[in-house]
Amino acid sequence: MKKTPFHSYLQSEWVQSQLKRLSLEEKIAQLIHIAAYSNRDESHYQKVLSLVKTYKIGGLIFFQGHPLKQAELTNLYQEHSDIPLMISMDAEWGLGMRLDDTLSFPYQMALGALQDNRLIYEMGAEIARQCSRLGMQVNFAPVVDINNNPANPVIGFRSFGEEKEAVVQKAKAYMQGMQDQGVMASAKHFPGHGDTATDSHFDLPVIHHNKARLEEVELYPFRALIDEGIGSMMVAHLQIPALDDRENTPSTVSKPIVTGLLKEKMGFEGLAFTDALDMKGIANLYEPGEVDLKAFLAGNDVLLFSEDVPTAVEKIARAVRAGEVAEEELDLRCAKNLAAKQWLGLTSHQPVVLENLVEDLHPQSAIELNQQLADQSVTLLKKQSTGFPMAHLAEERWASIAFVCQTETSASGALQHHTIDKGFQENTESSLVFLQQLLEKQLPGKVSHYQVFSQDKKNLDIAQLLEQYDRVLVSIHGLKMKALDNFGLSPDFIEKLNRLAASGKATICWLGNPYALGLIEKSHQAREVLLTYQESSYTQQAAANWLLGKLQPQGKLPVTVNQHFVRGQG
């Protein structure tokens, strides 16, 4: 078993000197990280600054905002921090998960389709470089939950898939890419959030599996990454009766799970972060401050997204003085945080350079890597004939129909190159979805392009269209990545897509979550089905290249959708 990357710093002169000078309350504060945003008003920035100065908290987790403003705030907060702050973010698919004007890499489900995990290592390294450029030291990734529940409302596309060994190998590549660049990885969501039907952001999920099943499946990737020396774990808010049978006891506040299982039985010596303490899966059960105490008593090393720092410090200090936890145990957890900071380079911390920041977060090499990841993850689930779909364009009449799901967030993802302002009609290039633009550029005037919008009442005459054309390219845009509301697919769209699939003329480009494809019961009857896992300019470029015979899909389906599309297909 490899040691955590900061293990050798535990007894360092800097760590021990800091430990000796800190008061009891200051040691506790080193375990507390609060939320910070770079898109809020001045009062929020001043509140964060006040907590940094007054309570000497250990770190910040940044959420939504803009990179330049975040860098300015990071410099401000670090300048006034007694001990340098550990700065973190959920950047599972890169900074674009949280920040405007930054890059997004593929979701882990798409990475699950890759056959070359070296590309995942390169992605991890690039994300780490971008984190470092922005003054961050911890990325809460990879997700190592094994997604074996298609209805999972919160993990799903964030998982590498349903096969545990594949999840481990891909997670290991992502972790090593980051930690080789000096950014700490964090495996989540311990002890496994993959088989739930409840989102812990809103309620407390219950996992009913027995210990044997948990050992065999859910815990397997966490154990493997501990063996590889991962720096931290994130403990989820889950009710798991087989591990702790007390009612309404989330894993985050369970000593049998955090201390007994993770630290003692599994031998984890890195930092145990709580998942955010504001999430309803735990916040519905405990008041702010009280939840921090419960999580501390359970054995967590970092209390993430604390909502009441003064009360948390007061309650934990009282518990230590009362002997509920030995001060030596607090010292050890504080030392682990300090040692991690030293390994992360915070003892020689320099302000974030603001000049050229946004440009530096968009290197050409990262853009090329993004296209490579898309090219190698797209998966051909069905192929009716040899050659490529548009090989006989000269003899065939082709139509392209873009089905656009108009959900709250679809416009930016689906039609990022133009405004949604038309119903079903044949359009010129200026109003095509990006995939259609790419085809029109390569095949000017040779394909008839249509768009259908879910909120438009105009009807698409499928019978007439199928009579008019020999082949129909069907692309689906604006799909939600989460299972809620059928991934954004309307009943009308489902009916139309089934009719087209059953026609024998359809080539489907599914630009979204593979589980959503299961809603189209006749999708397996299409001539070809290409799955890109998500919608981006990169995946649409890959799809266009496949249609034109310039790309041979290499991806393998990482999850089972239904009896027609099973794991490993492609």
UniProtKB/TrEMBL annotation:
Keyword entries, A-Z: Glycosidase, Hydrolase
Occurrences of domain Glycoside hydrolase family 3 N-terminal (ranges): 24-333
SUPFAM superfamilies given in the database record: (Trans)glycosidases, Beta-D-glucan exohydrolase, C-terminal domain
One example GO MF annotation: beta-N-acetylhexosaminidase activity
EC number(s) on file: 3.2.1.52
Signal peptide: none
One annotated GO biological process: carbohydrate metabolic process
Reactions that this protein is recorded to catalyse: Hydrolysis of terminal non-reducing N-acetyl-D-hexosamine residues in N-acetyl-beta-D-hexosaminides
Record-linked InterPro entries: GH, Glyco_hydro_3_C_sf, Glyco_hydro_3_N, Glyco_hydro_3_N_sf, NagZ_Beta-hexosaminidase
Family: Belongs to the glycosyl hydrolase 3 family.
Designated name of the protein: beta-N-acetylhexosaminidase
Organism: Rapidithrix thailandica
